[in-house]
Amino acid sequence: MFGLFKSAQPSKLTIEGIDGEFEVKPKETILAAALRQGVRFPHSCRVGGCATCKCQLKIGKVKELTSAAYILSKEDLDQSYILGCQSIPKGDVTIRIDSLVDGVGAAPVATAGRIIGKDKLTHDIVKIDVELDNSMTYLAGQYALLSVPGLIDAPRSYSFATPTGNQGGRYLTFFIREVAGGEMSTWMNESAETGQSIVVEGPYGDFYLRNSDKPLILIAGGSGLAPILAILEDALQFKNPRDVTFLFGARTQNDLYCLDQIIRIQDNWAGKFEFIPVLSAEPEESDWQGERGFITESLKRFAGPNKQAYLCGPPPMLDAAEAVLNDAGISINDVFSDKFLDRSYGTSK
C-alpha cells in the first residue's frame, strides 16, 4: 500500500564524450541538471525557443514540456534530437551533444572583457566590439554566450561577426538586433557604453564552412549577416576558390549594411562571386534597381543540385529557403542553417 506513495527517484544522465554520470532530480530538465553539475551545455533561452540546447537522445525516454516540432527540423526529429531545456528523463538516459563529441572548434571557455566600440549599422542593429582579457579560439560561423555582470546575468547567444584573425581571438565583433522586450538586445542598442564589463562564453555551435569543392549558396537576413561575413572573411584569408552566390535579404535599402565590406570580399574572391541583395518592403517609387520581393523567389534562379548552402536569419525565411533548396535537388546533407530566434519566437534576447 505504501508503495503507491513512494517518492520519485533521481535519474542518471550520461553524456557521450564526458566521463561519469550526472544526477537528474525528479521534474528537472536535462539542461538544468547538467548546468547544476558544471557541464558546459550550450544553451540560451531555456524556454524551448532557440534550439541552442539541441542534443540527440541515444538511450532512454523523456517527457517533453513543450513540443520541439517547430524549432527542430524533420531530419532532427527523425534522428531523435530533443531540446535539453524541455526534456525531463523518464528513467536513465544517454545523450549526445554534437559540439562536444565531434570536437567542433575549441572547447568552450568563459572569459571577461569589455566593450571597446559601438556603432549603429541600421535603425535596429548595432555593432559591438569587445576586447577579451584572454584570447578565445573559434570557427567562423560559431557563436558565444554574452552576459553583463550585475546587469544581465542570464546569457544570450550571438554569432561572431569576424573570424579569429591575427590577434588570436582577443578582439571580437557582434551584430545585435534590437527586439521588442529583449533585455540584452535593448540594452546593447540603447544603453551599452565603451568600457562596460562583459563576459563572453564560447565557442558554441556547428555552423561553419565544411570542406568541399561544391559551389556555395549563402543566404542571410537581418543580423544573420554576422556568421556569413565571418565565414567569408575567413575563407578569403585562405584564398578559397569556391564559386559563391550570396543573397542578402532585407526590408528596405536602409536595412542593408556592411555593403562596402561585402564588395571588398567580392572584388578579392578567388572564384566567381555574385552578390544579390533582395528587398521585401522597398517603396515602389524609390530609386532601387535591384531585386524585390521575398528572397526565396530570387533563390529559385540559383538553386540547383551539387551545391552547398549556408543559411542564417529568421526562422520563417530559412524554412522557406530550405524548401526551395530541397525542391532544387540539393541534399539535406549540404544544407546548413543557423536560425536566429528572438522574443517573437519564444526566446528572450
TrEMBL record:
FAD-binding FR-type domain ranges (all copies): 108-210
Chain ranges of the 2Fe-2S ferredoxin-type domain: 11-101
Gene Ontology terms, MF aspect: 2 iron, 2 sulfur cluster binding; oxidoreductase activity
Superkingdom of this protein's organism: Bacteria
Transmembrane segments: none
Cofactor: [2Fe-2S] cluster
Pfam families according to UniProt: FAD_binding_6, Fer2, NAD_binding_1
Identification of the protein by name: Oxidoreductase FAD/NAD(P)-binding subunit
